[in-house]
Specification:
Blueprint (H helix, E strand, L loop, with lengths): L8 E7 L3 H13 L8 E6 L14 E4 L6 H17 L5 E6 L3 E2 L2 H14 L3 E3 L1 E2 L4 E2 L3 E5 H7 L8 H4 L2 H7 L9 H10 L5 H4 E3 L10 E2 L4 E2 L4 H10 L7 H7 L1
Parallel strand pairs: 1-2, 1-4, 2-3, 6-10
Antiparallel strand pairs: 4-9, 5-12, 6-9, 7-8, 11-12
Helix pairs in contact: 2-4
């Protein structure tokens, strides 16, 4: 397996709000990628069940009735989606938030191809100020998930005692108790260590990393900006996308 094959891809979309973002994300993947019908898509949702119905383009819909909050709730969805993919047959597993969009099929394809070519076990953007993997958009080899899961809510002791990090987290909503820290700890426990397993792919626009041209990858909260990107890349097929652009 040395090149991109959409039939090898299992995509997991996770979220508890951002319902419009999810519907558009699904339409991008299904209707605007020429190979969209070959992708296996699993949705993991832990929000209001009346606001996001199943059966709108995903292959599997996993509803989690309990949401333990912003950090732990995200970790629970992360674990649930990756655990489901780990027992499947598709060898490449991508997981990203409802509001993370790849605007062009070529950008997504390049992202996957570069991960495969890296020979690494997982891919994530890099947060230089923290030294952490960015968990909003990650990619894994399925066999690695057997070693990784479940991800536990634990932070490395030496990081908890690092004065620079303590100052950096001061006043933030979650502090050290965030998904990036937990993922870092769990992956680093798999020898020979996180650096040997990690494909650090390019993310632009520090410190928010909202847009990366190379992969046409956006994690933007600005709807007007995203409307312009949809038009720029002619990513306009679907039922919700045209209405969104006109709104």
């Amino acid at each position: 397996m040395n090149q991109f094959n959409p039939s090898n891809m299992h995509i997991i979309l996770i979220g508890f709000e951002a319902h419009l973002d999810y519907r558009i994300n699904l339409e991008i993947l299904r209707y605007n990628f020429s190979y969209g019908d070959k992708l296996w898509i699993t949705t993991v949702y832990n929000g209001d069940p009346d606001k996001l119905p199943s059966g709108i383009g995903e292959n599997n819909f996993i509803y989690m009735s309990e949401n333990r909050g912003y950090g732990l709730g995200a970790l629970d969805a992360f674990n649930k989606g990756l655990a489901f993919a780990s027992i499947g047959y598709r060898p490449i597993v991508a997981i990203f938030n409802f509001d993370v969009w790849f605007f062009k099929e070529d950008g997504f394809k390049l992202w996957v191809e570069e991960f495969i070519s890296s020979g690494k076990m997982f891919g994530a953007g890099y947060l230089p100020e923290h030294g952490l993997p960015m968990t909003d958009c990650m990619i894994f080899r399925k066999e690695f998930l057997e070693k990784l899961l479940p991800i536990e809510a634990k932070v490395q002791k030496e990081r908890l005692e690092d004065e620079k990090l303590k100052k950096m987290y001061e006043g933030t909503q979650l502090g050290f108790e965030n998904v990036e820290e937990w993922v870092q700890n769990n992956i680093d426990a798999i020898k020979p260590g996180i650096e040997d397993h990690w494909w650090k792919y390019q993310r632009d626009g520090e410190p928010r990393y909202r847009w990366t041209e190379k992969y046409t990858l956006a994690h933007s909260h600005d709807y007007e900006e995203r409307k312009e990107l949809l038009k720029k890349f002619s990513t306009t097929k679907g039922k919700v996308i045209p209405e969104f652009i006109r709104s």
